[in-house]
Design goal:
This protein is mostly beta strands and 140 residues long. It is built from one helix and ten strands. The structure holds thymidine-5'-diphosphate.
Length: 140
């Protein structure tokens, strides 16, 4: 089973430019409750380093590129996001790290829940323990 679940969003392009539509419960597989974006990243500094107990997210690199490490506690896979018409599913119970942000990178994330710090697992050892004891089951 791949840890890298990428969505290819249709691009409604014409000679005026490109247009991508994101709709909850359509090409985004949940109702969108929150949107945040990351920019002004610093070269050599990675982010993430957590998993969520229940939150599902889709990450879209609107400008530039960045790399993700996705880790389900058993396997790790890496992927580059470099196009605004691609979305990466960050499922619940997927430890993720983002790195190699290009200059001017803008990373937008859609989430199915509002912010809740208690949904985070920020200690890798706690994540591995939760995976091994099936405390939180991923929807897969
Ligand atoms: P965090 O999720 O740790 O960022 P990253 O995964 O990119 O490293 O969030 C950074 C800080 O911002 C942390 O203090 C929590 C806060 N935050 C919110 O208040 N609301 C949000 O929706 C998000 C995503 C983060």
């Amino acid at each position: 089973m791949s840890l890298i679940n990428l969505f290819d969003f249709p691009v409604l392009g014409d000679d005026r430019g490109a247009l991508v539509v994101l709709e909850g419960n359509h090409n985004i597989p949940f109702e969108i409750k929150r949107v945040y974006y990351i920019y002004g990243t610093v070269q050599g500094i990675a982010r993430g380093f957590h998993a969520h107990k229940t939150l599902k997210q889709v990450a879209i690199c609107l400008k530039g590129s960045c790399r993700f490490i996705m880790d389900d506690g058993k396997n790790k896979q890496e992927v580059t996001l470099a196009s605004p018409d691609k979305g990466l599913l960050i499922d619940s119970m997927q430890w993720h790290e983002m790195y190699d942000f290009s200059e001017g990178c803008i990373l937008m994330v859609l989430a199915d829940q509002v912010y809740d710090e208690s949904d985070y697992i920020r200690e890798y050892s706690t994540f591995i323990e939760a995976v091994n004891t099936h405390v939180y089951s991923s929807a897969k």
